[in-house]
Amino acid sequence: MDMPPRVVSTPAGTEPPSALCVEETHIEREGRMDRRTLLAAGTGLAVAAAGAVACDDTADTPAPSNEGGAPRTSPREAAPPATTSASARAGKPRAADWTALGKGLRGGLIRPSDADYAQARQLYNTRFDHQRPAAVAYVAHTSDITECLAFARRHGTPLAIRSGGHSYAGHSGGTDRLVIDVSRLRTIRTGAGTATIGAGAKLIDVYTSLGAHGVTIPAGSCPTVGISGLTLGGGHGVVARAYGLT
Ligand SMILES: Cc1cc2nc3c(=O)[nH]c(=O)nc-3n(C[C@H](O)[C@H](O)[C@H](O)COP(=O)(O)OP(=O)(O)OC[C@H]3O[C@@H](n4cnc5c(N)ncnc54)[C@H](O)[C@@H]3O)c2cc1C
Predict the structure, then answer these.
(1) Which of the listed CATH numbers 3.30.43.10, 3.40.640.10, 3.30.1330.60, 3.40.50.300 matches domain 92-181?
(2) Distance from residue 232's CA to the centre of ligand 1 (Å)
């Protein structure tokens, strides 16, 4: 997704977004455990007390124990929307179909049997760690997206699209879905008064690239939120009072 943002000058004295947000990078730099491990250890409150403000996602806590029961399914998983064409003809994909899809992509396709799968399936919020996508496609070109959509139509495979993976509702993942991850489409091109931003760019990279030209856009406060998810939802950030929403 390319979008022409409004480009505005950064007001003097505006706090950089990263100053408001406790993120993995910050925690790792401090030599402590990463955010996910911290949450798993049940000490998320310690992070809040340490000063998480804008990125303190109150939903970002492990879901209450399910007492050994089956993992909860989100409402979306319980009733998947019709994200694929009803004209699916080839039936459920077999291993060979997935292999063929992977070979046809310029980016990578991660399947449950791959070593990278444990990380590839994760969203930002540990609440959705139970989700087990059928595959995660790290699309590297628009042709990869075309391939994935054609595959999904052919086999009736439900899709999810992921940018920064911050969806509060877990909509960018899901069990048995083909996740189209756009995080590698992160090129940011700047021109005279315009910028073209790849769908997978993270806010920190957007701010850094635009800031090098002395400009910015009204976006969110959290460095790892994706530009496309934020834009679709209507972003609110540190310069919103002066320049409005994303
Ligand atoms: C810790 C935290 C801090 C936040 N801080 C702010 C903030 O300061 N200001 C603010 O306004 N919001 C903030 N948010 C909310 C955030 O902006 C939204 O959750 C946003 O939708 C996340 O975008 P994403 O790309 O990271 O998430 P994703 O989960 O990747 O995407 C969100 C939704 O958009 C869809 N989507 C993503 N990319 C595409 C695409 N290319 N094409 C079609 N659909 C797509 C996904 O399928 C999903 O439904 C925050 C959220 C968190 C968890």
Answers:
(1) 3.30.43.10
(2) 8
